[in-house]
Amino acid sequence: MAQSIETFVAKLQTEGVDAGRRQAEQIINAANEQAAKILDDARRQGQQIVNEAQAQAAGTLARANTQLELACRDAALKLQEAVVRAARLVLVDAAARQLEDPNLIGKLLHEIVLSYVKAEQEGQAWLVANVKPEMRDKLVNWAMKEIGSQAVDKLRGHFDLNATLAQSGFEFTVQGATVEVTAESIADTLTQLVAPALRETLKKVMKKAD
Q1: What's the rounded Cα separation, in Å, for the pair 128 and 138?
Q2: More confidently predicted of 132 and 5
């Protein structure tokens, strides 16, 4: 039986609706797939950014720790050196006060001269001592008082006393060799002796503080 126009039109409408629905579903599915792909790409990129940020943060922290350790080491070394310098200043001051005593200087020089005189069989040892100008007069007075003018005259044949030294203490020269006994030289010697112990003590104190 021939289709009526109404039936034909209805059929076209139905087929058109179905085709449109199928096309819409395809578009929706494609859109969903594209959205899922975009979301996955975004997640991967986000994770990559997070990983790079974590790696950069770890590197920055490692560098900061290294710099901090170096700074602490430098600070510890500077502290040790500062303590050693302070100790040396204390030793210089203490030695200088002792070496301002003419009684001490006189006894030391007297013993030194006698030792060199006895060491020479013919008594020809010639020793030159040098002190501060103000100390020279004090030593002369000390010698006259303590060992007497005859002993002083006897020593003059083996001993000269100059007065050109700029610091506390004395120096003496015999047979071309000069020995310095001053606040600076004494402090240098004592600092070399005590510095290792001071540094070791500071290390122990800083370890306990950690």
Answers
A1: 17
A2: 132
